[in-house]
Every structure is written in C-alpha cells, then in structure tokens.
Amino acid sequence: MARQATAEKRPRRERGSINPDDIIKGAFELAEEVGIDNLSMPLLGKHLGVGVTSIYWYFRKKDDLLNAMTDRALRQYVFATPYVEAKDWRETLRNHARSMRKTFLGNPILCDLILIRSALSPRTARLGVQEVEKAIASLTEAGLTADDAFDTYSAVSVHVRGSVVLQRLREKNRATAEGPSDIDEAMAIDSDSTPLLALVTEKGHHLGAADDNNFEFGLECILDHAGRLIDEAKSTPAKKSARKR
C-alpha cells in the first residue's frame, strides 16, 4: 500500500536557524518516506521543526525546491556514472548504460526528479550537456561519425531512461493496488490461441516488461549496430584504394 503523507514533528527550531542546505537535505529525507508526489511545504515544515514561512523564505514554491533537489541529485548521478572511453568503447558504453540504470532503479527519488520530472536549472543543464559531449567525442574517436555517435548515445540514453521509467511506473501502479501494473500482467495468454507466446513466457520471458532480459537484449542490439557502422567506416578507405588500382 502507498505510504500516507505524514511526518513526525520535530522540536521547534529557533527562528533563523534553518538554511537552504538543511531544507534540501530534509526534503530528501521526507521524500524517502512519502515520495515526491506527496512532498509538500507544510509537511516539510513539520519534518524540519520550522514554520512553513521559513521554507518559503528560501523557496517560494514547491517547484523551486524540487529544482534545487534535482540539481543536487544530478550532481550525485553524474559523479557516479563511468565515462565512455574510445579505446574500449563497446564495454565502457555498456557499463555506462548499466550503471545509469542501476543508479536510477536503486533510487526512486532520483528517478522521479530527473527522469519523470526533468526540470533542471541552466547550470545543471549545461553540466549534463558537457557530459554527453564527452561521450560523443569518445565514440567519434572510436570510429563513428559525429551523426552516428550522437544517434548511438541518444539511443542508449532513451533505452535506459525508458526502461527505468517503465519500471518506476510499474512500482507506482502496484502501490495503488488498482488493476494490473503493466501490459505484461494485463495480457491473457493461453497455449491454444497464442502457442508461441505461451511457450516463451513459460520460460520466463516478459512482453513489454522493463526487466533485465529485455534491457540487455535492446542494449546489445544498439551496440551491435554501432559496431557494424565502425567496421563499415574502416573498410571504406580500403575499398576506395582497391578501386583506384
């Protein structure tokens, strides 16, 4: 069942004893208990033991507070994500994707702030763009064109984010206990009308589920395609040289 939006009231702080860092830290603590959707300024005031006006002094509305939380969460996420390296692009890009997914799946608050809400300050947005630039530069050094490097990294990013968001929505649907949590649970599969589906689902395959098997299959397809593009680029100069002879 979903947790109710309640917070234990702490001893009242002295006026002026709270600062933005305290508020952001408290907001993360409270979000761990009640979720981002149920986070509110009055509830946060009770959690911190201050009047709600003390919070509004620094954050005029909830969106401002969520933006500050997102900035902090993204800095933590970028720091924890391994870089893509040209000399071993396939393995490092694979690890990069797996690490992104693991980080978000392990922290629902991070997922809600960065992937679902997606509101970033200009400074944090620039930081994110710079990290993407580094990854694309490594892929071009590995042999992809700038266009193909961009499309490859973008495809990996969409694949990771889509997988995580689907899993997060599944968890939220299950928490409400209102019907099936995703398309996989809603489908009626029997061996008479859908024998192939019945065969593979009995082996543990899931249609449309953001599980490890589907994630890894999709990731390898993207990496395989990028590998073919690099191989084609390497063979093109040799073909041109042979024709000149």
UniProtKB/TrEMBL annotation:
GO molecular-function term, one example from the UniProt record: transcription cis-regulatory region binding
Swiss-Prot/TrEMBL GO biological process terms: negative regulation of DNA-templated transcription
ATP-binding is among the record's keywords: no
DNA-binding region: 40-59
Keyword check for Transcription: yes
Cross-referenced PROSITE patterns: HTH_TETR_1, HTH_TETR_2
SUPFAM superfamilies with a match to the protein in the record: Homeodomain-like, Tetracyclin repressor-like, C-terminal domain
Domain of life: Bacteria
Assigned keywords, A-Z: DNA-binding, Transcription, Transcription regulation
Signal peptide (UniProt feature, chain positions): none
InterPro entries according to UniProt: DNA-bd_HTH_TetR-type_CS (IPR023772), Homeodomain-like_sf (IPR009057), HTH-type_TetR-like_transc_reg (IPR050109), HTH_TetR (IPR001647), Repressor_TetR_C (IPR004111), Tet_transcr_reg_TetR-rel_C_sf (IPR036271)
Residue span(s) of domain HTH tetR-type: 17-77
Protein name: Transcriptional regulator
Lineage: Bacteria, Bacillati, Actinomycetota, Actinomycetes, Mycobacteriales
